[in-house]
Amino acid sequence: MAVIEVTDLTKRYAGQTVLDRVSFSVEEGEIFGILGPNGTGKTTTVECVEGLRRPDGGSISVLGLDPIKDGRRLRELIGVQLQHTQLPENIKVWEALDLYASFYANPRDWRELLDQWGLADKRDARFGKLSGGQKQRLFIALALVGNPKVAFLDELTTGLDPQARRATWEVIKQVRASGVTVVLVSHFMDEVEELCDRVAVFDRGDIVAIDTPAGLIDGIDAEHQMRFRLMTGDAALRVDAPDGLQGDVPGALLSDVPRALLSGVPGVTGVTRTGDQVVVTGRGDFATAVTAVLARNHILVADLRIDKRTLDDAFVALTGRSFHL
Ligand SMILES: Nc1ncnc2c1ncn2[C@@H]1O[C@H](COP(=O)(O)OP(=O)(O)OP(=O)(O)O)[C@@H](O)[C@H]1O
């Protein structure tokens, strides 16, 4: 069941169109990623969905409500972590949670959130004295204290160190497991790959693709490479002749066997060999087929590496430009 339906959302600032008929839906219980470089309209989209900005065109439904007309009712049901939230420097962590909880009819026990987000020992600390990572975790806890059905998290792990980012990801997975639908705005590819069930890729005020992270990556038709080293010596001596070759395999031919064999594997577009190093270039999932052919022919290899395609590559393939420009 879709909890968010956005159809032809259009938004202009001072006559400039920043969202041009954007449409997508978010299913109940999923982590839905909104991914794109800076300035492509992610925050504008999410803030229209939250009812914080008024669209110039299109329609939005969140949990069956119109974010503008039914704003009050909707705010009871959603939790929002804004990109630039601020709190008074002197407010204590527990006071902030208690205050936010008082805005909701059916809040969570904020003591549980303190534990879940590793803030229990900061309960009495003042906001101004928290580290960047602790502030970030407090903002997420504040977004969840109202027991929301949908949580919007904008730049979830900005400013966190690698360990804190991983810890945050684990808690977000728990949040999903508890049945909360999560909309995650991010420009971190690794975060989106790790967390999101589906991703909308934004570019210049438009969605260029919506799919699972794996689906986006599999959709790339770009060439990539696998590399390995042929094992030499006794370990590589084969008892069986390779496919299509009978009897003894002469030494010279043996050295060309991988190239001859692999060139015909579906998806392979090139095989180069320098000494015992082999580089196979191809499209799609050719690496699985290559590995199978090597195994079937008892060709022993070491140091096998497959250049992993990433969401970065998918973005370049979709838009023709680099994500980080
Ligand atoms: N209130 C505003 N008034 C005028 N222009 C705005 C306003 N808010 C955003 N913009 C412009 O609209 C475009 C989209 O901005 P938005 O913040 O939605 O992008 P974003 O993808 O969330 O970027 P970031 O990743 O940097 O947060 C940008 O060109 C931005 O400068």
TrEMBL record:
UniProt KW keywords: Antibiotic resistance, ATP-binding, Nucleotide-binding, Transport
Provenance organism: Nonomuraea africana
Bilayer-crossing regions: none
Recorded topology in the membrane: Peripheral membrane protein
Principal place of residence: membrane
Span of domain ABC transporter: 4-229
PROSITE patterns: ABC_TRANSPORTER_1, ABC_TRANSPORTER_2
Name of this protein: ABC-2 type transport system ATP-binding protein
Subcellular location: Cell membrane
One annotated GO molecular function: ATP binding
Gene3D superfamilies tied to this protein: P-loop containing nucleotide triphosphate hydrolases (3.40.50.300)
Taxonomy, superkingdom: Bacteria
SMART domains documented for this protein: AAA
InterPro entries documented for this protein: AAA+_ATPase, ABC_transporter-like_ATP-bd, ABC_transporter-like_CS, ABC_transporter_ATP-binding, P-loop_NTPase
